[in-house]
Design goal:
Distance between the termini: 21 Å
CATH topology of one domain: HIT family, subunit A
Radius of gyration: 16 Å
Protein name: Histidine triad nucleotide-binding protein 1 isoform X1
CATH architecture of one domain: 2-Layer Sandwich
Pfam family, one: HIT
Mean pLDDT: 81
Low-confidence stretches: 1-33
Number of strands: 5
Oligomer: single chain
Largest sheet: 5 strands, antiparallel
GO molecular function: catalytic activity
InterPro entries: Histidine_triad_CS, Histidine_triad_HIT, HIT-like, HIT-like_sf
Strand order of the largest sheet: 1-2-3-5-4
Number of helices: 5
Helix content: 25-40%
Structural class: alpha+beta
Order of helices and strands: HHHHEEEHEE
Length: 163
């Protein structure tokens, strides 16, 4: 894959991008440029933003559209707009918790419900081959949206170490 290919691939729709990566050489993960942009977003985000409505708040209130795959009274799951794996969706609490650093003892139930829901949906969508759950926390953890969320990624062999 040439050095220019990742730049060109980013301009394609996500499904074309996944197809292209799957059919070229032995590329097993998205180009570093895609991941770097998420890190850049996290570097630009600040803790002060934690008190302002996020894009996830707007998805919960249906102010903006999302490809919602699950919803109950406590959480919402929707496909990621910039997938990093063939299957990539987010599970978020409806009651906003900005980040893991902000959890309280009273949040144990919702945290358990989020992990349970992520696992249930992961098994439904990906079967028994497995999947990865990721929670980014803070700037160095590449958290770019200050609304706690679990990434569920799968549909290919995950690499280790992840970051």
């Amino acid at each position: 894959m040439s050095l220019l290919a990742p730049v060109l691939l980013r301009s394609l729709r996500p499904c074309q991008y996944v197809l292209k990566v799957a059919t070229t050489a032995s590329v097993s993960r998205p180009p570093v440029a895609t991941m770097a942009s998420e890190v850049e977003k996290a570097q630009q985000a600040s803790a002060a933003v934690k008190s302002q409505p996020t894009i996830f708040d707007k998805i919960i209130s249906k102010e903006i559209p999302a490809d919602i795959i699950y919803e109950d009274d406590q959480c919402l799951a929707f496909n990621d707009i910039s997938p990093q794996a063939p299957t990539h969706f987010l599970v978020i609490p409806k009651r906003r918790i900005a980040m893991l650093d902000d959890v309280e003892p009273s949040d144990k139930d919702i945290l358990g419900h989020l992990v349970f829901t992520a696992s249930k949906l992961g098994r439904e969508k990906l079967g028994s081959n497995g999947f990865r759950l990721v929670i980014n926390n803070g700037k160095d953890g590449a958290q770019s949206v200050f609304h706690l969320h679990i990434h569920v990624l799968g549909g290919r062999q995950m690499q280790w170490p992840p970051g």
